[in-house]
Amino acid sequence: MRENKYLYASYGSLVKGLCWCLFATSIPFSVFAADVVVDGFSYDSSLQRSSFLSINPNYEKILEASVADRRSHFFWKLRFDAQSLETDDNINSQIAGATFRAKFGYKLIESVEFKAKSNLSLESGRTQDIFGDQEPGSGIYPREVKITYTPFKDVVEIDAGMIHQRFFNMPIFIGNLGFIGLSEKVFYESERFDVGVRLQQLIPTSYTNSTRVGERENVPYFYTESLEATWRTSRWNFLKTRLSHFRYENLPSVVAFDSFIFGNTVTNTDVNNARFIYDFDGWVSQWAFEQKFSDSLAAQLQWQIVKNTAAPSDAGEGRMISIGVANDFGRWIAAVKFVDFFIESDAVPARYNSHAYGHNNRIGNALNFSLESKDWGVNFKADYVKADLLNQSIRRLDGLQQDNQQTIYFAVETMYEFI
Q1: How is 89-125 classified by DSSP, letter by letter?
Q2: Average pLDDT in the 144-150 region?
Q3: What phi and psi values does residue 399 have, to the nearest 5 degrees?
Q4: pLDDT(78) > 50
Q5: 10, 12, 13, 15 alpha-carbon torsion, rounded to 10°
Q6: How far apart are CA 319 and CA 322, in angstroms?
Q7: Whether the Cβ atoms of residue 216 and residue 251 lie closer than 8 Å to each other
Q8: Model-level pTM?
Q9: Lowest-pLDDT range, 14-28, 41-55, 322-336?
């Protein structure tokens, strides 16, 4: 397993080359400083316009800016998708469906706004599933419901409610989830440099319905403290980093049981008595460098590490490296991303990270494609993830165990419209 980690050293030469690009293109900044702001934003590229490779694409920023003076706004989009998930021996799942996704905002007073994101999903399919996480589901699924208070505009932001964790953009650390609680952010933005501190005090989701529970469970908590910075060295590139400390407390037995099935080690394999052997207290380091080669072509390298310092050195680490490229052909944006990753058994609670990447005790690759029509506002996506076992899994429930897994995903998705 340690030998697998050293495979990442081969990326050293690539990182060095990108650093030289960063240095070389930052020198003549003063020559074209007037061109740094594009469409009202400090950086713009085909990759940032892509709703596939950018977590907050510029077209969404432009839409939000266009309705900033309204008291209320409503954004919506549609997605049609299909997924096939298979393991070598025990899972075979095919699911298809449609999703209506909505974002709503309403200003209660000048500095207080209600915000909500929700999905209406209709799914059907065939599932041969031993773990219960691949069954098709239909219904309304809230993603984020919160009150945002901005006592000092563009400097301080406080959220209370269900707070989405998508901003981490690291599926082996935490999936596409929302937890209830508080979030505080203090930030400063300028033409070339942004810096911010983000704190979270959250209650992670869990459901204990067993009538055999003999005592009241303590409230679980999830705490994060993050320092974030972005340096736009020129109109041709930027460097972004986030260093976060995280800590889980009082996770209930049902979370330990689910996580045991997905790769964690626990003291007991019974749903009512399972307990994690190791605590979860550690660090997440994230780096992203993007380079524009022309007004139409851009590439980005991301390097992300999660380390649970409460687990042994051979059980508490995960790494994810990705390289994405996007090109704007005028009417279309084509994008591709390659991901290389591993996640050890006790780096994080497996209940809360991505099932597409196999949760914990995994090593593998992913390949993502996207083709977006700017004329029609439609995005065609295709993803492939191969997540093999990092270490041979111990025996699980009734002799069943983790297995090598592959996921194929297709989607057609519109971009956001507003009312």
Answers
A1: SS-EEEEEEEEEEEEEEEEEETTEEEEEEEEEEEEEE
A2: 96
A3: 85, -10
A4: yes
A5: 130
A6: 10
A7: no
A8: 0.84
A9: 14-28
Residue type, 54: S
Per the DSSP assignment, residues forming a β-bridge with 127 are 93
H-state helical runs in 182-273: 253-261
Q: Where are the beta strands (DSSP E) in 250-355?
A: 280-292, 297-308, 317-328, 332-343
The angle subtended at Cα 56 by Cα 378 and Cα 295, nearest 5°, is 75
Question: E strands, 2-46, where?
Answer: none
Query: Can you give the residue ranges of every domain in the chain?
Result: 2-206+217-418
- Closest to 325 in 3D by CA, of 303, 300, 344, 294: 300
| CATH 2.40.160.10 fits domain 2-206+217-418 | yes
Facing residues of 339 across strands? Answer: 322, 366
- Residue 325, pLDDT > 80, answer yes
Q: What spatial distance separates the first Cα and last Cα of the chain, rounded to whole Å?
A: 52
Cα–Cα distance for residue pair 222/229, rounded to 1 Å = 23
The helix (H) or strand (E) run that includes residue 17 is helix 12-26
DSSP conformation letters of 111-177 = TEEEEEEEEEEEEEEEEE-SSSSS----EEEEEEEEEEEEEETTTEEEEEEEEE-GGG--TTT--S-
Reduce the DSSP state of residue 71 to 3 states and report it.
coil
Nearest CA to 139 out of 117, 125, 121 is that of 121
- Is pLDDT at 276 greater than 60 in this prediction? yes
Q: Give me the amino acid identity at 168.
A: F
Q: How far apart are CA 44 and CA 295, in angstroms?
A: 9
Contact assessment for residue 300 and residue 324, using Cβ atoms and an 8 Å cutoff: yes
**Residue 289 in contact with residue 313, Cβ under 8 Å?**
no
Report the C-alpha dihedral over residues 84, 144, 375, 368, rounded to 10 degrees.
-30
8 Å CB contact between 256 and 275: yes
pLDDT digit string, tens, across residues 180-239: 999 999 999 988 899 999 999 999 986 544 444 445 678 999 999 999 999 988 888 999
Let me know: does 116 contact 144? Beta carbons within 8 Å: yes
Structure tokens at 143: 């993603």
